[in-house]
Backbone:
């Protein structure tokens, strides 16, 4: 009988017979040969309750220690789901094996109970090991272990690194109940504090009010890094608000105490005199390359302007400077192309000043900051202005689309109205589908409702007939009945759609500017969940094919619009240019926002 058959036979035996069979040394020798590796695992999985301890005893440990595949065998034991395994796993020699192969086995530690945890802790203390080996215990078990051994842990003089290994409940307990750990956190580097709170920790109010902690956050120079830290404080609102309010107060003081003769911040004067350096490593590195005082002053002047701009946007618009300027640029570009006054003149002037900030005088920059410091909710105002521009743009897009009912009927094809474009100007919002224009076997559906969250479309016109897909192979759907409020995103290139939308920059166009900016094809994302969002017609390049007719019939005999491409500047394309633009951008400490295209 081979080992596989023997393993199966054992699982069919009575409990008493199993005990005898499993303690047989010849069986164990077979199980620890290469051919017995999987029968061992299957035995572990098949043995119930305390039966598993007939196999997992002290005599098995030496075999396990010498086994070349001990990691996999321990994995099988730890994940067996049998509560009796803890009796075996809490043995010191087994814990030693788990610690030696921790990187492989740590993921299975959450399956183990409090008795194993207690034995593991004792092993760590007795062997002076790192507390990282507690890291994968269940949070509830971890908390019990920490409470039971708090004095021992503190005797080891643990530092902030110790908290990294702990779960949310355990960290919150220590911070709320022991000043030792509160002091560790308060005096830690800000990046380390951020890593702790990023676990979702709610800090005690005593820490949230601590001036040392608040000042640590205020020392963060880089605006991107600062916002990353602030965004991780959503569970610590008091601390977050205290930091933001203190930072804005510091901004106001700094801007209104500029050295107007040198046009730099007062805090930069010692640096200009060569008496001090920045806390920022990257800025120190930059200063080290400057050979004379004149160059240092020029650098500090530019840096002052950049910092004033960041302070202004941070204080009043609560956004990253680069992203906000791009949004302002997009909005002002759109406004310059329309005749309607959709944004109040005073706010429009402020947006223009912010976008052209580097062309203002120092006095004008100070005045702009103090003008904005009027108690208004500028974040809400800007959001509403940007949304107003988008809504206006989307309505323009809908109004520009061709409507078959206003066209001259050319013919009927199998009872379907057919229209034709022979060089006339037009705009269509279209989407390619997998339904073929020519096939022996057509699918019985065409419009996948209630599956995706977004539909990807393109605007085409007499100037550009290109979209994602081959119009000669696949059916093209056209749309002109939808709520403009359901447009989610527009862009002059592919935006790499996913079910939640896109990460590309949110642009605002007139229909003509969208076409003008489109290199190959554009993409417009629409909320497909709206029941009113249905295809209005089928677009046929050059001729009506069988698939076009089938698609129209499936959609209720919607019209066919044939485009005679010979009357337009259209060439069938192969691979199209695809480019990906994201909204956020990592900005260095010395970034010059004047590099943006200001209008």
Residues:
């Amino acid at each position: 009988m081979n080992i596989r058959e023997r393993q199966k036979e054992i699982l069919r035996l009575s409990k008493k017979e199993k005990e005898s069979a499993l303690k047989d040394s010849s069986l164990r020798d077979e199980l620890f040969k290469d051919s017995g590796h999987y029968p061992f695992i299957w035995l572990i999985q098949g043995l119930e309750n305390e039966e598993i301890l007939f196999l997992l005893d002290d005599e098995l440990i030496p075999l396990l220690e010498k086994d070349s595949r001990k990691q996999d065998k321990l994995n099988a034991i730890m994940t067996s789901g049998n509560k009796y395994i803890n009796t075996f796993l809490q043995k010191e020699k087994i814990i030693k094996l788990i610690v030696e192969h921790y990187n492989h086995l740590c993921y299975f530690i959450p399956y183990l109970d409090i008795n194993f945890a207690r034995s593991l802790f004792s092993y760590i203390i007795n062997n002076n090991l790192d507390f990282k080996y507690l890291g994968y215990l269940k949070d509830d078990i971890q908390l019990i272990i920490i409470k039971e051994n708090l004095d021992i842990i503190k005797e080891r003089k643990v530092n902030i690194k110790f908290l990294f290994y702990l779960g949310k409940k355990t960290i919150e307990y220590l911070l709320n109940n022991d000043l030792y750990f509160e002091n560790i956190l308060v005096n830690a580097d800000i990046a380390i504090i951020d890593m702790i709170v990023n676990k979702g920790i709610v800090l005690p109010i005593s820490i949230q009010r601590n001036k040392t902690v608040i000042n640590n956050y205020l020392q963060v120079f880089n605006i991107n890094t600062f916002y990353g830290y602030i965004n991780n404080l959503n569970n610590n609102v008091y601390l977050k608000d205290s930091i933001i309010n203190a930072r804005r107060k510091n901004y106001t003081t700094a801007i209104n105490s500029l050295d107007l003769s040198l046009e730099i911040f007062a805090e930069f004067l010692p640096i200009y005199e060569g008496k001090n350096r920045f806390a920022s490593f990257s800025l120190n590195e930059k200063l080290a390359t400057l050979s004379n005082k004149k160059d240092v002053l020029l650098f500090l002047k530019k840096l002052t302007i950049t910092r004033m701009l960041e302070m202004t946007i941070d204080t009043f618009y609560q956004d990253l400077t680069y992203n906000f300027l791009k949004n302002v640029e997009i909005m002002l570009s759109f406004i310059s192309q329309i005749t309607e006054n959709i944004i109040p003149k005073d706010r429009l002037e402020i947006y223009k000043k912010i976008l052209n900030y580097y062309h203002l005088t120092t006095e004008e920059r100070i005045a702009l900051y103090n003008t904005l410091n009027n108690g208004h909710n500028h974040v809400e105002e800007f959001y509403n202005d940007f949304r107003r521009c988008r809504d206006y743009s989307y309505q323009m897009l809908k109004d520009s689309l061709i409507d078959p009912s206003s066209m001259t009927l050319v013919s009927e094809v199998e009872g379907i109205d057919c229209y034709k474009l022979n060089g006339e100007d037009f705009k269509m919002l279209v989407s390619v589908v997998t339904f073929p224009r020519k096939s022996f076997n057509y699918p019985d559906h065409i419009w996948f409702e209630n599956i995706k969250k977004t539909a990807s479309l393109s605007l085409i016109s007499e100037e550009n007939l290109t979209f994602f897909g081959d119009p000669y192979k696949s059916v093209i759907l056209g749309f002109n009945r939808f709520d403009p409020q359901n447009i989610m995103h527009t862009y002059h290139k592919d935006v790499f759609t996913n079910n939640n939308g896109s990460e590309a920059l949110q642009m605002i166009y007139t229909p003509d500017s969208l076409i003008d900016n489109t290199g190959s094809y554009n993409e417009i994302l629409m909320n497909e969940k709206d029941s009113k969002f249905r295809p209005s017609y089928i677009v046929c390049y050059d001729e009506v094919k069988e698939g076009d007719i089938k698609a129209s019939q499936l959609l209720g005999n919607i019209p066919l619009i044939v485009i005679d491409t010979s009357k337009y500047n259209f060439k069938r394309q192969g691979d199209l240019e695809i480019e990906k633009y994201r909204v956020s951008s990592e900005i260095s400490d010395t970034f010059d926002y004047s590099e943006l295209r200001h209008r």
